[in-house]
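User: Sequence in, structure out. Go.
Assistant: Echoing your sequence, followed by the structure tokens.
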Amino acid sequence: MATIPYPHFIGSEKSAVEKGILSSSSSSSSSPPSPVVLTQDELKKIAAYKAVEYVESGMVLGLGTGSTAKHAVARIGELLRQGKLKNIVGIPTSKITHEQALAAGIPLSDLDSHPVLDLAIDGADEVDPFLNLVKGRGGSLLREKMVEGACKKFVVIVDESKLVKHLGGSGLAMPVEIVPFCWKFTAQRLQSLFADAGCVAKLRTFAESDKPFVTDNGNFIVDLYFKKDIGDLKAASDAILQLAGVVEHGMFLDMATTVIIAGELGVTVKNK
């Protein structure tokens, strides 16, 4: 595992400058290089572009959802228009990705027609040292897990802020998709499961209206917040899925085959 400096994989300092990734002064031989200061979105874009290097003509692709994955979808569409990729079929993981991919000119299908995918590219909300993930803060975890569980290779793209020592370690949400029927009952049972970890379960709502967030599948999401490590992830996964009313959770265990991490010093690629 090595960190690849940005100019190396982008191609040249000139192209990096044109993309706004390096400051123009860094290409001047008369002055020392300026430090590269990248926004979080620029880091996401860099990771996404690196992931698209794994895409080959003729592939069936899982197209992820979220602020990082959207850069990969846009890049795939661009390469199709340029003729650098051909005969791509995309399987979107959400309605919003479906719309973006159509607008980008990517031919689309579904798992019924393509039950085995060559590759999926998606972001993640957390990545632990064993490449386990938390996903679903954007609300598409069920379709993401269905699509990404059907692919031969799953490439995850993140910026370094998503790295955690253990899942739940960011203090942010670990989502669980549940049926709307008696959601308070289900949320209370989820919270009780992880009482030892100081779990708090909250129904996801829209801030402006306080109405429940509804997934593409017509379900609600309960976000779990942990104060401590929840321990055995497989046991936690099984316990959640055994609760009636639970549809799916946002822990993606042993699914990622490659994680691409964009940080201040360059891109790091970790393989399973």
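User: And one key feature?
Assistant: The radius of gyration is 20 Å.
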